[in-house]
Design goal:
Layout lengths: L2 H17 L3 E2 L2 E3 L5 E7 L4 H11 L7 E6 L15 H14 L4 E4 L2 H7 L5 E2 L2 E2 H13 L3 H13 L4 E3 L4 E4 L5 H4 L21 H7 L5 H11 L3 E4 L8 E3 L4 E4 L7 E6 L6 H6 L1 E3 L5
Parallel strand pairs: 2-8, 3-4, 4-5, 9-10, 10-12
Antiparallel strand pairs: 1-2, 3-13, 6-7, 8-9, 11-12, 13-14
Bound molecules: manganese (II) ion.
């Protein structure tokens, strides 16, 4: 793909993000029709991305939605060790363009780190630098324009998806110490660049970890939902649950999972756990 083709894909992706009919502000609200698949962090794992897309089979399931998150940083490298995960992001953006109202890429902390060019470490490497170096080698003199299009695409992503059956999906949730200052209007209004910078609300939403039961109960009430499906926190077994109102899924390794829920039925936490699908079983 030429740099111009890549830029064009990101531009179309921005338009698809902005024009998604179910989006209001930074929240996508799904109707009580069809079903939904949610993938956790992908981190450049192309094979798992392909498994998720193949399992979702959006062509043949016209009422199905797919949520993707944290696609960049990790996976295959070029000959000089540069991170090639931007290639998987481009594939995901193409899918967003094709199924604009049914594919939802939600904002993650690696995205905000890329946009603000702040450090994000993974296995001892600063991932933005290693990815930008690979992009520089690929796109040469056009690097600035490609980076800008990619940053603007990532910035145009919604923050969360709310299901009619009271399930909330976001990359993470704010940690306890940031909750007092959390701006809940962030879901309804236009996002500002300052929102993604520490300690502002899109930053704390996407970076938060280890939310206590008390915090989850409080957020559930405030956001008017019963359950959270999140990514972000690494799960070696592919998922975890607090057996009450939280399921975390992880799709970045060989024990990765996705979550497959109906949008028309009520859930219990046990039923949500039963809706988990092991990626390795998908051809
Ligand atoms: Mn994350």
């Amino acid at each position: 793909m030429t740099p111009d083709e890549v830029i064009n894909i990101f531009e179309q992706g921005i338009k698809a993000n902005e024009d998604t009919g179910l989006r209001s502000g930074n929240l996508v609200s799904l109707a009580a029709v069809g079903d939904l698949m949610v993938a956790g962090d992908i981190h450049g794992h192309r094979r798992n991305f392909e498994r998720v897309v193949s399992y979702a089979d959006l062509e043949n399931n016209s009422k199905r939605h797919l949520v993707l998150q944290e696609i960049i940083h990790g996976g295959p490298e070029d000959d000089e060790g540069g991170c090639l995960s931007f290639e998987v992001l481009i594939e995901a953006v193409k899918l967003k363009i094709k199924f604009a109202d049914r594919v939802h890429l939600i904002m993650a902390n690696h995205d905000t780190a890329f946009i603000s060019n702040s450090e994000v470490m993974k296995n001892g490497r600063e991932m933005n630098r290693t990815m930008r170096i690979a992009m520089q080698r690929r796109y040469g003199d056009s690097i600035k324009a490609v980076e800008s299009a990619m940053e603007r695409f990532l910035f145009s992503q919604p923050l969360a998806v709310k299901c009619p059956n009271r399930i909330w999906i976001s990359h993470s949730l704010p940690a306890a110490r940031y909750l007092d200052k959390f701006d809940f209007t962030i879901f309804d209004r236009q996002l500002k660049v300052s929102d993604i910078v520490r300690p502002n609300s899109a930053y704390t939403l996407t970076w938060g970890r280890k939310q206590s039961e008390k915090i989850l109960d409080m957020l559930a009430e405030k956001l008017d939902v019963d359950f959270f499906i999140l990514g972000h926190q690494v799960q070696e077994n592919g998922w975890m649950s607090n057996n009450k109102n939280l399921v975390i899924i992880d799709s970045q390794h060989n024990h990765g999972y996705l979550c497959h829920i109906e949008l028309t039925k009520s859930y219990t936490i046990d039923a949500l756990i039963e809706s988990l699908v092991r990626l390795a079983q998908i051809q």
